[in-house]
Design a protein that fits this description.
The protein has 370 residues and is of the alpha/beta class. It has 2 domains: 111 residues, no CATH class; 240 residues, Spore Coat Polysaccharide Biosynthesis Protein SpsA, Chain A. Helices cover 51% and strands 12% of the residues. The protein is built from 13 helices and 10 strands. The chain has a 7-stranded mixed sheet, with helices on both faces. Strand 2, helix 4 and strand 3 form a beta-alpha-beta unit. Helix 1 packs across helix 11, helix 1 packs parallel to helix 12 and helix 10 crosses helix 13. The N and C termini lie far apart (55 Å). The relative contact order is 0.16. Belongs to the glycosyltransferase 2 family. One of its GO terms (molecular function) is glycosyltransferase activity. Keywords: Glycosyltransferase, Membrane, Transferase, Transmembrane, Transmembrane helix. This is Glycosyl transferase family 2.
Length: 370
Amino acid sequence: MSLLDVAFYSFVVVALIQVVYYGVLFGSFSFKKKEPSKPQSVPISILICAKNEAKNLKQFLPSIIEQDYYNFEIVLINDASTDKTLEVMEHYSEKHNNIKIVNVRNNETFWANKKYALTLGIKAAQHDHLLFTDADCKPISKQWISEMASHFTNKKTIVLGYGAYHKIPKSFLNKLIRYETLLTAIQYFSFAKLNMPYMGVGRNLAYHRDEFYKTNGFIKHIKIRSGDDDLFINEAANSKNTTICYTDISFTSSIPKKSFKEWFRQKRRHVSTANNYKFKHKALLALFYISQILFWLLLIITFTLQIYWELAIAILVIRLLIQYLSIGFSAKKLNEIDILYLLPLLEIFLIGFQLTIFITNIISKPKYWK
């Protein structure tokens, strides 16, 4: 067997791996119908950890306050802010008796550690069912709390939600950010559907306080300053206690980064945190990304050297069709359908972006929090 044959057969194997991921693994979420939820009557504590977020709190906190839910409190955690964040919190707490403020000051042991601030907030919360979001997030509807709360049961004590980003017309960066967010959501929703939950996003995440204490909070990764959401879920979630919520009235929407530099810094933190996932999760995610890179690389080699190029075109069409169907059905569920027409370009660009982040993180460690 010649090297050219090896290259082509390698391309076939990699394409098959991609088809399995998009068609089978991701299909467990993409091709499943939405399951109706049952209204629950559980008191909810909403936790928002804010560091220098005065402007965003003024803009988005009213959307939390105005939620249509029978019994909820808002725990505002001021994480040693140096702007007017605390003043804004106090302004709203004077007007609403369901707002509680936890004012965190820096100390030598937990300097600039969001997990320490969140721990104090969780301990101060009045209710056992906790719902997390960020200061720059806005619920899509007034039923956000009720929809997320409806997925709690006696057995399901962790609820993974979707945190979208605002749409910016005619912005390629915005579409790239939203594509990466969509793909990440497809992955963690699909793995949860397959009873292998591995992460959630702090922009829209809920769990019972008992889950926090079962893992001794963030203690196992307290020195890793990021990962208060995904690392916690990676440790606490399992096939029995985790469920997902993806009805459109349960979404939150956040302000996306406005420049590639800002987004690059943000994703560096996220990628470095993922290195601390459980091995099986890292292996499955790594296989997907490696197979993505190899698919396009081997495709270029096949076309350049004209190795069974007719078959290569057929394989490319099949793979793209399955990818479009898988991502398309998910995009429809998560209201991101407008990014589909740029799908191949966004995929290739994101592969290069992530590879650059990986190499950069090897050279130097990223900074954390704010």
